[in-house]
Design goal:
single chain; mainly alpha; 5 helices; elongated; Rad21/Rec8-like; Sister chromatid cohesion 1 protein 3
Length: 129
């Protein structure tokens, strides 16, 4: 059960997973965001070359740590979005005088008939060509 050093190189498919397992503090958010969890698991479960059980355990630990960070980032993003929605729709305290709390009748009610002759509109003619 051997493995190649190119198998765990930093730019290889499992390089980020290896770094997550052993050097967790060296990972950036961008490294975690681009890591595809299902393909990494498939690569560990069905490798091109046989790998040691201990190595597959380390790689699965790295996958779990990456997944945990992704869940943490999602939680913080959702929490931030919820906070922004709540602040956008907060009730505004308005101090109105008693006589201003009710709108006048003519302001909210349409008249029963419209006096269209009172409107000064230009006559528009349509020419069919």
């Amino acid at each position: 059960m051997f493995y190649s050093h190119t198998f765990l190189a930093k730019k290889s498919p499992l390089g980020t997973v290896w770094i997550a397992a052993h050097l967790q503090h060296k990972l950036r958010k961008s490294h975690i965001a681009v890591t595809d969890i299902p393909s990494s698991v498939d690569y560990v479960m069905h490798p091109e070359v046989p790998i040691a059980l201990r190595l597959s355990g380390h790689l699965l630990l790295g996958i779990v740590r990456i997944y945990s960070k992704k869940v943490d980032y999602l939680y913080h993003d959702c929490n931030d979005a919820l906070t922004r929605v709540r602040t956008a729709f907060t009730a505004v305290n308005v101090n109105l005088q008693e006589d201003e709390s009710i709108a006048p009748f003519h302001a909210v009610t349409l008249p029963e008939t419209f006096d269209l002759d009172a409107l000064d509109m230009e006559v528009v003619t349509f020419r069919a060509e």
